[in-house]
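Below is a filled-in request sheet from our internal design queue. Each sheet records the structural input a requester submitted and the sequence that came back. We keep these sheets so that new team members can see what a complete request looks like end to end.

REQUESTER: design group, bay 2
PRIORITY: normal
MODE: inverse folding
CHAIN LENGTH: 247
BACKBONE (tokenized):
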């Protein structure tokens, strides 16, 4: 990691009071939640079936193979004991100082809120929230995942699903507009822990019109050329180092 770039970014964060953070799965890897596309990520693991991980997380698969969907989800995307790491905590500190105005996250684990962040825009939903598809009754993840097979509503018998956008499904229009508004109005945009290959999320970068786009990631992304500053490495370590002098 380039120390000169790190120190420059520190100064930028000290001077700004309108920062927005846009993050992905890499933010939660230090909390022992795997990402998707790295060498050890979810999409490079065997599923034990004839289906790809991407297909098993699609609307079609959920509809046609609901039991298998829940089996896969329970084994690969349910981490009830996961705790926020220093990346989440650093963002909380920035928000408490009045510097960070919003977090736009692709993650569905709810760790930003668990850490204490208030203004979190969940682009892909939240896997800790469940609802009955028939009557709309809300359920906890504990209720849904501690059932055998497909969880059913205790009131009407409808299928319970989580409040997450699957492949083939559209992003909620209000969430989309909220995310665009936050990024458009950012003085500083920090992008971290994301491969920037999943659309429409990756397309949000086009709405940032400033000149302080900070990219923090372990690997290169297709949009590195858009960044004004690049910090390579573990985002939980880098974010904490960036904010520790501010807090």
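RETURNED SEQUENCE:
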């Amino acid at each position: 990691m380039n120390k000169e770039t790190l120190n420059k970014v520190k100064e930028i964060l000290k001077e700004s009071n309108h920062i927005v953070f846009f993050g992905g799965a890499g933010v939660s890897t230090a909390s022992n939640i795997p990402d998707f596309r790295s060498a050890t990520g979810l999409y490079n693991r065997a599923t034990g079936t004839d289906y790809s991980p991407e297909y098993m997380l699609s609307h079609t698969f959920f509809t046609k193979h609901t039991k298998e969907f829940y089996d896969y989800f329970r084994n690969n995307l349910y981490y009830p004991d996961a705790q926020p790491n220093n990346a989440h905590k650093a963002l909380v500190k920035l928000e408490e100082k009045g510097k960070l105005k919003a977090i736009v996250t692709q993650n569905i684990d709810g760790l930003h809120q668990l850490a204490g962040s208030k203004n979190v825009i969940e682009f892909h939903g939240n896997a800790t929230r469940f609802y009955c598809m028939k009557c709309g009754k809300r359920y906890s993840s504990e209720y849904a995942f501690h059932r055998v097979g497909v969880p059913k509503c205790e009131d009407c018998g409808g299928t319970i699903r989580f409040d997450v956008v699957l492949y083939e499904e559209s992003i909620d229009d209000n969430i989309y507009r909220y995310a665009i508004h936050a990024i458009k109005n950012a003085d500083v945009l920090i992008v971290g822990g994301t491969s920037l290959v999943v659309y429409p999320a990756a397309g949000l970068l086009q709405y940032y019109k400033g000149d302080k786009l900070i990219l923090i990631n372990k690997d290169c992304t297709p949009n590195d050329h858009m960044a004004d500053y690049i910090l390579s490495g573990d985002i939980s370590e880098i974010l904490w180092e960036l904010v520790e002098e501010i807090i």
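SHEET NOTES:
- The radius of gyration is 19 Å.
- The chain has two domains: 3-33+84-124+171-243, 42-76.
FILED BY: M.R.
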